[in-house]
Known about the structure:
By secondary structure, the chain is mostly helical. It has helices at 2-13, 15-38, 46-62, 66-91. The N and C termini lie far apart (47 Å). The mean pLDDT is 96.
Amino acid sequence: MIEDIAKRILKYYGTPHQKAKTIEELAELIVALQKDLLSCKKELSRETLEEVADVQIMLMQLLDKDDDKKAVNDLILYKLERQIQRIEKEKE
């Protein structure tokens, strides 16, 4: 259901517009995270959570094609495994 709504929004606005909107939402997330850091809170603020949601919505729209979703999931797995290897090397 959520993905269907995201596809509908993407279809209405178009990919170029939603790419620009994604950049805007990412900038807002950066600002919210900076505020969290400056306030020395360990948990995420409500503002940050809202910005994370906005970014996830935009990414969901940009990853409309199954091939793109698979490619990103493969890259995520690769990067996570690579980071675990780095951690293991640091422990040595």
